[in-house]
Each structure stands twice: as C-alpha cells, then as structure tokens.
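DATA SHEET
Item: assembly model
Revision: 1
Owner: S.N.
Input lines:
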Amino acid sequence: MAVTSAEQFPAQEQFRPRLSIRKVYGTVFTAIGLVAILVGLGMLAWLLLDTLVTGLPWLDWQFLTGFDSRFPARAGAKAAIYGTAYMMFFTIVVALPLGVMSAIYLEEYARDGKVKSFIQINIANLAAVPSIIYGLLGLQVFVRWMELGRSVLAGSLTMALLILPIIVVATQEALRAVPPSIRDASYGVGATRWETVRHHVLPYALPGILTGNILAASRAIGESAPLITIGALTYVPFTPENPLDRFTVLPIQIFNWVSRPQEDFQGVAAAGIIVLLVVLLLMNSVAIFLRQKLQRRF
Amino acid sequence: MAQDVWRGAFPSRGGLGRKRGRRLKEGAIAGLFFAAATVGALTTAGIILSLIGETIAFFRVVSFVEFVTETEWTPLFSVKKFGIWALVSATALTSLIALLVAVPLGLMSAIYLSEFAKPRVRAVLKPALEVLAGVPTVVYGFFALTVMTPFLQRFIDMSLFNALSPGIVMGVMIVPLVASLSEDAMSSVPQSLREGAYGLGATRMEVATRVVVPAALSGIVASVILALSRAVGETMIVAIAAGQNPTFTFDPTVPVMTMTTYIVQVSLGDTPYGSLEYRTLFAVGSTLFVLTFVMNIFSFWFVRRFREVYD
C-alpha cells in the first residue's frame, strides 16, 4: 500500500517557507541597522555644524592671543592653550616611559602566572575607573600628601595615571604584532633579552606604540573632570611659568564659559571647542598617518 | 680548562667580567621594567587608600544608616542632611536614559556592521562611528545645554536643566562603546555557524538575530554593562546640562544633581582641607567607585563565564 508523503510527514503540510515576507523583514531590518549608524553620525554632524556656526564668528586672533575676560568680545584662550601645552608636556614625559616599560615587562619579560594576570586585570580595571575618581586620587596624593598644590605638575601626574592603562594596552598590542620569529632569530645569534627588545622588537613596534600614545594623549587633552577636582583654576589671567604654577586648560575654560549666564559666552565657548577639536583632529591625523605609512606587516 | 682556552683566544676583552657586567645590566633593566609595571597596581592601591581614609573620617561624623536611607542631600546648608539617594537617583536616571539610547543604536549598528555592511562600507562607517567616542565630554555638555535642550523644549515642557537632554547626549557618546565591543563579539562567531543556519534555509536577518546575536550574547551584555559604568562615571555632560538640584526624583524634565556633578560643584568652591564638606567628596567618590568597580568586575566575569568557545 502506497503511503503518501503527507501521511508519512504530517508536518510537511504545515511547512510554509513564506520566503518573500521573510526577505521583506530582512530588508527592513537592514535599513534599521543603517539608520542606527546614521543617527549616530547625524548627531556628530549636527554637533560639529552647530559648534562651527556658533563659534566661528568669535574665533579671531584676539581669541587665540588674549587672556580671559568678563567681556565676551575680549575673552581669549591664551592661558588655557598654554596650560594645556604645559600639562600635556609633563603628562607625556611621565606616562610614556612608564606605560611603554610596563608593556614591555608584560609582553617580553613576565612569565604567564599569577603576577602577570594580576597586573593585567588591574590595568583592565583601571581603564574603566571614572576619570573623576582619578581627580580625587590626585587631590589626596599629589595636592595634599606630596604638597604639590593645585599646580600644573599635580595635574600632569593625575593625567599621567589616567592615561597609563591606555598606553599600556596599546603598546602591548603593538609588541604582540611583532612576530616571535624575529625574537627567536635574535636570541639565536646570542643576543640577550634587552638587546632583542632594544634592537629588534622596539623598532618594529614603534609606529604602533606612537599611535597608541598619541591617542592616549588626545584623551588627556579633552579631559576636564579630574583637573576640576584637583582644583585647576577657571579664571587665569596669566600663563604658567614653572611646573608648580596654577593653571587652566582648554576644556575647563570651555566649561567655565558655558556656565556663564551671558548668551555671548556660548559663542566664545564654541570658539574654544573649535580650537580643541582642531588640535584633536591634527593629533588623530598624525596617528592615522603613522599607522598607514610606517606600520610594517608581517 | 676550556675557559682558559677561550680567554687566550680573546685576550683583549674582559671575558668573564664582561659577561657578569652584561648579566647585571640585564637584571637591572628587567627590574626597572617590573617596577614600571607595578605603578598600575600602586595606582589602584592609591585610589582605594585615598578614598578610604577620608570616607572613614566622614562616617565618624555622619551615620552610615542616614547616608543610605535618607533621600535629602544638603551638606552645604545649615541643616545638613546626607542622603546619598538624592544623588544616586539622578545618576541612575541619566544613565538609564543614556542606555535607552545607546543599547538599541549601538546594537543595531553592531549587527549592521558585522553582518550586513560590505567591507568597503564598513571600513568607512566604523571609524566614523568611533569618532563619537573621541569627542571631549565637555563638548557634549555644551551640545546638550545649547542645542539638545532647546530642541527638546519645542516638544516637551521642561526646564533648562534636566536629566533627559544630557541623558540622550550621553547615550550618543557611548554608542561606539556598545557598538564596537558588540561587533567584536559578533565578528568572532565562527562562519560555520552562519553557514549551518543558511543551509537550513535561514535568511540573513534570521542568521543575525537567531544565531549570531545569541552566540555573541556574553560579549554584548558585557559591552552594555561597561557602557552603563561609563555613563555612571560621566561627569561633564551632566555637570553642564543636568542642573545642580539634589532631589530624589525620577522626573526627567526637572534639574537634578548626579554624584559626579556634586563632586564638581564642591571642587569649584574652595573647600578647606579636612572639613566635612571636603570629606563628602570622598564619601560620594567611594560610592561612585564601588558602583562602577562592581559593574566592571561583573562585566569581566560575565564574559569569561558565559563565553562560547569555538575551535
């Protein structure tokens, strides 16, 4: 007796692929995904356009070379630009060697084990600590205990600790991208560990390390919360002369202008934002250039 | 004996002495690198120590029970009340609004980038989206106060300072965080899983939502928790645009004060070292640190615990 397939597999009759409607769902879904990205990018465009429109009329020579003022037309960012430059100089001087040396230790020296995984977890966690907590650390350790006062140096050390985890992680990635065969070849001809790192690993990893450091520095340039906490000034009619002087930086100056009640100061704040964004854009361009031009692929 | 032969062969160099010098140098350099690597651990210790000392001093004066049960926060008034909930509620409110924006946008962006975008489109859109994470937060604060709030005021009756506008802007800021970590998780789902689903007749969308997303769920959840932790600790956006009124409320249209805003407000004034106001900074800071620390650890743990491992 012949058994029809419908009797054998009753479910088959209920199977309806509905392929066309499922494909429509798929198209709608893809469109939603694209829209989600475009919403994010649209916000970015809106932010940039609005800042340019508000700020450009205020961005002139006087703004770049003058000190802050109670009058919007005379307010300038000189103290903030100098303060940012000073602070970044000391931040990089401290953070770059420390971060690179930490990363070299973790990648080239440390054996897999408890010590290494402890340091590694610790760094991952530090990267996620809110920046304002670093400000409280700086306030207590650098401003109070080490008695540096509310100075450029205290701010730089705080910032250095803040960006240290970023530098370590970026440097580790750069070191990991150097293939082990390079190291083996170096050991093979009798080089010591340091000679291997110094002459063979570091030169190849250098573009990656520099890129990571520039990105970390651009994070520090935009930060303001930890510096407010350690007590960086908001009204500074002078440029810092030595590391123990009080100071302000661009983001704090912008914050101060935004907080003022006069409408015109929104324009001044926007002008400050343009300066800040141009600096960041330049730094990121250098980082991208380094990555594209100098990076060696194995 | 063999050594003597070697020494004879290279008489001009210091032989053993040079070898010892080289070893000493190696050891010194290794020690230096290890010392540098301990700075990270010292930073964590420094954070905990500097928070804990002043926090203990704070709780000698203010009872811990009052701190965690009161809902009024007036440490700068003559009648001082120390109810952390007034600040925690504001932080929770702005952070949840941020998540409501960032999770759908970030997740859909991640799915699109990982599963649908052509490589060339992806190569443009992904870095463009990451730019959002590089914009300084003070710029977002300016945007929230001078653009987003007036824009929202056209549709909603609300005050100049409110939780909604900075919440939305903060959400946009953390979109790249959710998107890039989720996308990493989705990209590491092996191709064979997708092909298996295609073989059973699934469409691209079904593969994305029923195979890739569940397989990458641990990474997605971790990215959302990290984004929440970022929003909780975010300072400048809320300090500029959310207001400075410590009130226990979940109304997104009125001024509120987050934990971070309080720290900024007190830091801007000249609080004498050792005073009770100075110590409130650290009590609030400790609360913030513990909250974000728990979230970060949970996120790391979650990835490791629930990660699907494919060979």
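QC remark: DSSP finds 13 helices and no strands in chain A.
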